[in-house]
Design brief:
20% helix
């Protein structure tokens, strides 16, 4: 029997993050679903006091980004189910990481798709929790924000 601590290590895949321990790079975005985009926009901007980095409508969807703390951005999106929160991690090479994950039996739930910063792939763990990985091919896509 593999000890609990070794069981997780044996499933690690591919290129490691700079810390030498993580399978992915930094957590860059929390993608939050909204049932009422305008109400949630006002909530984060006016009540929470978060800085709105951008607010865009494209491909039939509305998405806004907020700085609510240091580090990652919180994105509200009307095309995501509410309530939901999708963590999105950055990887250096999406195609390479997808091959590494496939090698250990992990496949995305759909073909890769585009987010403003670049190609992205969505996954579900055994409990149904979603996470995504993306390659940042368009850094600062909306300017310095």
């Amino acid at each position: 029997m593999v000890p609990e601590s070794d069981a997780h290590t044996s499933r690690r895949v591919g290129v490691e993050a700079p810390d030498g321990k993580s399978p992915f790079g930094p957590l860059r975005f929390l993608y939050v679903g909204t049932a009422d985009f305008e109400a949630d926009l006002k909530y984060y901007r006016d009540l929470v006091g978060a800085e709105m980095l951008w607010n865009r409508r494209a491909f039939g969807a509305r998405v806004a980004a907020f700085r609510v703390g240091t580090g990652l951005s919180l994105l509200i999106a009307d095309h995501r189910p509410a309530p939901s929160c999708l963590p999105i991690f950055e990887v250096d090479d999406l195609e390479k990481k997808l091959k590494e994950l496939k090698h250990v039996g992990i496949s995305p739930t759909s073909p890769p798709f585009q987010i403003p910063n670049g190609p992205c792939a969505l996954f579900k763990d055994d409990s149904g929790n979603e996470f995504a990985i993306f390659q940042d091919v368009r850094p600062n896509v909306f300017g310095d924000a």
